[in-house]
Amino acid sequence: xxxxSKIVTATYPVLNMACAACSxxxxxxxxxQKGVIEATVNLAAAQAHVTFDTRVTSYRKLAKAVxxxxxxLVEPTDDSADVVADYHRRRMRRWRTRMIGSLVFFLPxxxxxxxMPHIAHLHYIMWALATPVLFVFGYEFFKGAxxxxxxxxxxxxxxxxxxxxxxxxxxxxxxxxPDFWLQRGLExxxxxxxxxxxxxxxxxxxxxxxxxxxxxxxxxxxxMGLQPTSVTRLLPDGTMQSVAIDTVVxxxxxxxxxxxxxxVDGIVxxxxxxxxxxxxxxxxxxxxxVADVRVYSGTLNGxxxxxxxxxxxxxxxxxxxxxxxxxxAQGSKxxxxxxxxxxxxxxxxxxITIAVVAFVVWCLCGGDDAFSHALLAFVTVLVIACPCxxxxxxxxxxxxxIGKAASQGILIKNADALETACRVxxxxxxxxxxxxxxxxxxxxxxxxxDESYRSVLNSIELRSEHPLAQAVTAxxxxxxxxxxxxFRSLPGRGVAASCNGxxxxxxxxxxxxxxxxxxxxxxxxxxxxxxxxxxTVIWFASSREPIAVVAIxxxxxxxxxxxxxxxxxxxxxxxxxxxxxxxTAQAVARQVGIDNVVAGVLPEDKSTFISQLQQQGEVVxxxxxxINDSAALAQADVSIAMGxxxxxxxxxxxxxxxxxxxxxxxxAIVISQQTVRTIRQNLFWAFIYNVIGIPIAAGALYPxxxxxxNPMIAxxxxxxxxxxxxxxxxxxxxxx
Length: 736
Hints:
Blueprint: E1 2-4, E2 7-15, H1 20-31, E3 36-42, E4 47-53, H2 59-68, E5 72-73, H3 80-115, H4 122-137, H5 139-150, H6 156-176, H7 179-182, H8 192-216, H9 218-225, E6 230-234, E7 240-244, E8 253-256, E9 265-271, E10 273-276, H10 278-281, E11 287-289, E12 294-295, E13 300-301, E14 306-312, H11 318-331, H12 337-365, H13 370-384, H14 387-407, E15 410-412, H15 415-421, E16 426-430, H16 431-435, E17 441-447, H17 454-461, H18 467-475, E18 485-490, E19 494-499, E20 502-507, H19 509-515, H20 521-532, E21 536-542, E22 546-553, H21 560-569, E23 573-577, H22 582-592, E24 596-598, H23 603-615, E25 620-624, H24 630-635, E26 638-641, H25 647-652, E27 655-657, H26 663-698, H27 702-705, H28 711-730
Parallel strand pairs: 16-23, 16-25, 23-24, 25-26, 26-27
Antiparallel strand pairs: 1-2, 2-4, 2-5, 3-4, 6-7, 6-8, 8-14, 9-12, 9-14, 10-11, 10-13, 15-27, 17-22, 18-19, 19-20, 20-21, 21-22
Helix pairs in contact: 1-12, 3-4, 3-8, 4-6, 4-8, 5-6, 6-8, 6-13, 8-28, 11-14, 12-13, 12-14, 13-26, 13-28, 14-26, 14-28, 15-26, 17-18, 20-22, 21-26, 26-28
């Protein structure tokens, strides 16, 4: 749960939703509540994502409103996940029981009607077999339809209940009063097998649908399963104690035995081991962990023993934040869903209207068997219509796509970002920490004779938070620290400060030119040769004279060239945008294969460059470290942070690459393309199924070839349509 003042955003599990009409009803109910700013409901994930003002409303008020609408809003507590999982397990078992029970009665009913049409009292036997199918194993449909009717709404349960009850009651009438039709020269047909068959086939479909929907959320289930429940805590006297994970606080010293999962985020302070972090980063190779290296909750310790000090616990751990982001993303809606929501909101009433119109038309124009045909058309239209396929088309694909990305160390914040990423035409890359390792180190230095100023440079750079400054201070760590005053950061140029009564400057060549400080031709020549080798040069001078030049190297990531080549193969233009000097930027660009380089850019100018690309019609993805590039990330159509799981990166960017591997960006784009393609396929088949199926069910083909669709076939097709949509979404998990 994220909180800003009195505005909170929470994700609540929702129970009892059967189809798109149900999710639309819950969403509408929540949106109508006072204090609710935004509410979206995901049918596939069975979740409501609600932003509301706690000064106006609360969970209890929202839950009461949803309950009045016929559904259950579950409060997100420590055991709510278990409650929801248990509910879905029981729901799966119930549908399996209904499926088996309905088939036990339906199959002999079907055999009798097809093979023994003239045995005595056949209609009464069929009546006896159909009754338990409808009112025992099909009870949930009638219960759901009644609840919706009480609230003035209709859903899939309504369609099933109305169609089966009409067919059943008509058959009962014809069984008890056959003379009513015989006296009019008509055959008293019964449709017990059709009403029972509808219940049986829909129950099969619901059972398969529940199983398939459960598979779509396997990624988040696996992530939640990584959280250990207990940990070994080391007490001050040296003894060990096994404690519950929720009792651990920051500062506790913990121990991970070989083969155990790390309990919380922390810093290693003893031991030596390799830790499998693939469940978070997607990287298959274990990471060597020694003293002062960070470990993360849920990762798997190898064969060594690790001692670590707890740093972040509970909801603050990286694993918990990942789970929260994935849950919220899976519950979000893609822009394309807006059209589906509009259709779903009126779908069932429109279908009922079409069924009534078909009934009336058949009664007026159907000839001798007008009423029988009218009844069949009415029942078949109600049965074949499938709001579930429409409702599941988008959220199942989004859920699987975002879950697949998370398993590869790619955090996608919302469905909007997932859909937009497939349209990216230009990628803008920051250099430091994106193309390079982000761990710069001093490799060369040249001083003007006297190196006594080393402690001055060290003292000044200690005040700076820039990564290059940290490289300098690491290089000069053996120097004394002197008092520094009047320290100023000069964005895009360097720093300035006073020390021992003299003004000093450390930064790029532009800063030296601005201050009118001239370096010798020898130092300039050496600096240029360093820059040609892709080193960044720091110039250091006092207000009176030049003092030194320092070369800093930030090695390229091993996968940078592969990643850039992969982006180009996807048809995207690749740009490198950096505040570094032109020579260094060009050297790096040559090594990774980037032709479009913009160097010497101030942080505030990066967003301007992205805006210029957008004005040229490009859909731009900006990839940076999530901290220095925040303005550029905010401007881009898709913002991707190479964050190593940092809080800031996950907050500022639409996507976060946890592993810091640039190749994952290409994978994120591919997953986006696959997901959007799957959504379009699902929506196409869901719409086409209903657009074609409903007219055929109404009897549109009868004037041409005498074809009337059997209600049982219609119910089987309806069940199959939902299962096929979910199954198509599940194919995403295995796509490369």
